[in-house]
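Q: What changes when flavin-adenine dinucleotide is included in the input?
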Amino acid sequence: MQLTPLHQTQENMKTSQLVFLLLPTLCFFVSWGATSPFDVDDSEDFISCLQSKTNNLTSISQLIFTPLNSSFESIWEARVNNLRFIKPSTPRPSVIVTPIDETQIQTALLCTKKHGYQIRIRSGGHDFEGVSSSDVVPFVMLDLVNMKSIDVDVGNKTAWVQAGALLGELYYSISQKTNTLYFPAGVCPTVGVGGYIGGGGHGNLVRKYGTAADNVLDVQFMDVSGNILDRKSMGEDLFWVLRDGGSSSFGIVLAWKLRLVPVPEIVSSP
Ligand SMILES: Cc1cc2nc3c(=O)[nH]c(=O)nc-3n(C[C@H](O)[C@H](O)[C@H](O)COP(=O)(O)OP(=O)(O)OC[C@H]3O[C@@H](n4cnc5c(N)ncnc54)[C@H](O)[C@@H]3O)c2cc1C
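A: The predicted holo structure follows.
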């Protein structure tokens, strides 16, 4: 049998005492990270701010989710595409807001600024770094899941699409109106129009028609002060950078106006 020297035993005891003392602290930080970086009181102030700026209290209340709501976790997870982020240690938003119109987005933006929070904008949730779903500082998530209307104008070969729509929903809406027009975008139907075009957007028809960004004709965009701008009022420089430069660095894209391109009615491949 090998005897352990006394000084080593004392060292081991010191280590185990230290671990014992640190354990509650570690547990506190792990559970803190598992929920939300916000204090409930802070988020209540934020929610009061939202409610104070709306005429329809019932409507806005149904569009706000905090960790105290039973549906909070499922709404947050629904569009987190990289499953690596669905773990207890990933910081959640304090509040998820799912606006149904521009006024509610404006209100959420102004209250977020007033209470000093970061904002994360989520369209399709396909950001593989989790940028749209998580942050290391307290944040509000603006989930555009309810802003996905699509208006296809076959005569003018254009479509207005709200940022929360998914590529598959856009393709489906076009196909409901015509078999000879298409928007040249990517193959994955669950990618969001908001983030996809903000990053340029390449797809199968890129050699013939360019990127998705090349086929954007106009935009409805909210700047950090809550002003709604279009291509004319924002000027060509901002319009250029919104389509590839990561639009969330500049504000919130509400909708894109797209050029639809001609395609054969029947396509065959070997
Ligand atoms: C499975 C898969 C397939 C893909 N296929 C392709 C492909 O074929 N071609 C291609 O080019 N790319 C492809 N991508 C990359 C994809 O286009 C980008 O990840 C894109 O940013 C996803 O957009 P989203 O709206 O789904 O993601 P989100 O996670 O919602 O957003 C991505 C980024 O854009 C910001 N953002 C989202 N909406 C807005 C808005 N309304 N206003 C301002 N900022 C906003 C977010 O804050 C975030 O920074 C693919 C990704 C995945 C995961």
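Observations recorded in class: The domain at 150-262 is CATH 3.30.465.10 (Uridine Diphospho-n-acetylenolpyruvylglucosamine Reductase; domain 3).
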